[in-house]
Design goal:
The chain has 363 residues and is an alpha+beta fold. It has 11 helices and 13 strands. A hairpin with a 2-residue loop joins β9 and β10. The protein is globular, with a radius of gyration of 22 Å. The model has no long low-confidence stretch (mean pLDDT 94).
Length: 363
């Protein structure tokens, strides 16, 4: 097969590249939300200055100029333990071990499904020939992802090491909400469905675009009251407002109300056949004999079933006291981050660290 050509996109090309990006994503197995141009371009606008970073989006082209792959990287300077500087490449959508950055899941390369091996080979060769990076972080990868394949392909010139892992949770939805609730335990069914009668004048209200700002502000206030002020709270609020403005019909922002009082706010986004549950918060005053979080999720899943959504994705993360997502029959998906270390001095340091910790190299 003729060699493919790799070319870095300019910043302007990326910001104007929605049509080409989305057309390729539709021919790939990349995630419909987190690898979409809408999500990642918004993420970049909110992080470019924060991270002091520059784009390094690599397009992979056939001899005829057809776009077959995208490696959506960015480049920035980092320090390990405050001492050892490095030039790092990362996937757009995540900033490794950065407390204030927005977290994205199911990250990957975007590759035409019939060109996976050839695109990986072309990107491996580009990375090997390009001296402008010391380490590459590929965060939050699904098993079998193209990015994980690229990491293995680069093992000849960079040390691939396992970094943090987490677990995503999702459930395949049946045709009806009644069928879904019939699969739940009696306790979860009670909290999700039967407790609706215990909330006076209950209503789950969809918020239109004109009400996004006020509702998202209520959401952040509710989250803060339960979890405390997160380092990323202000950035997250601005980012969610930006994403909501760009995704149009894909936004599901709802408020669970008791009369005129807001009990809970829930933000989810629909892309492809999946609804992604991003964030929710509830008023602790309504927890006497009631589970507002479960109750609001029940309304959200009911609406998703009614709209023909095939998968409800709870994403990663635990509740304050327990891993509640398994209560909904959600299946787990392991997500792995990979740290590829190229510079010889850093390779020696991290090999020693991993040896002392008993850490395994990636398979």
């Amino acid at each position: 097969m003729p060699a493919l050509r790799v070319r870095a996109w300019t910043r302007d090309e990326f910001l104007a590249g929605r049509d080409a990006w989305q057309a390729l994503r539709a021919r790939s197995q990349a995630d419909a939300l987190f690898m979409s141009w809408d999500w990642l371009s918004s993420w970049w606008r909110h992080h470019e200055t924060l991270l002091g970073a520059g784009l390094c989006v690599l397009g992979v082209y056939s001899e005829q100029g057809e776009l077959l792959g995208l490696a959506p990287f960015y480049r920035h300077e980092c320090r390990h333990r405050g001492l050892f500087g490095a030039r790092r490449l990362e996937l757009l959508g995540n900033a490794w071990r950065h407390d204030t950055a927005i977290y994205s899941e199911y990250l990957d390369l975007i590759v035409d499904t019939g060109q996976r091996d050839a695109v990986c080979e072309a990107l491996r060769d580009w990375l090997r020939a390009n001296a402008g990076w010391d380490e590459l972080v590929l965060a939050n990868l699904r098993p079998g992802s193209v990015a994980a394949q690229l990491a293995r392909a680069c093992a000849g010139f960079a040390y691939p090491r396992r970094a943090e892992s987490t677990t995503g949770w999702s459930v395949t939805l049946p045709a009806s909400f009644e069928e879904f609730t019939s699969t739940l335990s009696s306790n979860t069914r009670r909290k999700t469905l039967h407790q609706r009668t215990k909330l006076a004048d209950a209503a789950c209200v969809s918020i239109g675009a004109g009400g996004y700002a006020a509702s998202l502000a209520r959401l952040e206030a509710l989250v803060e009251s339960r979890w405390g002020r997160a380092p990323a709270a202000q950035l997250r609020a601005r980012f969610h407002a930006d994403v909501a403005a760009g995704l149009g019909d894909g936004v599901r922002l709802t408020e669970l109300r008791s009369g005129t009082e807001c009990v809970s706010v829930l933000l989810s986004l629909r892309a492809g056949d999946t609804e992604y549950y991003l964030l929710s918060g509830f008023d602790a005053r309504f927890t006497q004999g009631l589970s507002p979080g479960y109750l609001h999720l029940g309304y959200a899943i009911e609406a998703a079933c009614g709209a023909g959504v095939r998968r409800f994705d709870f994403l990663a993360g635990r509740g304050l006291h327990r891993d509640y997502k398994a209560d909904f029959g959600a299946q787990s998906t392991p997500l792995q981050s990979v740290h590829l270390v190229r510079r010889p001095s850093l390779r020696v340091m991290f090999r020693l660290v991993d040896l002392l910790r008993g850490a395994r190299q990636i398979d």
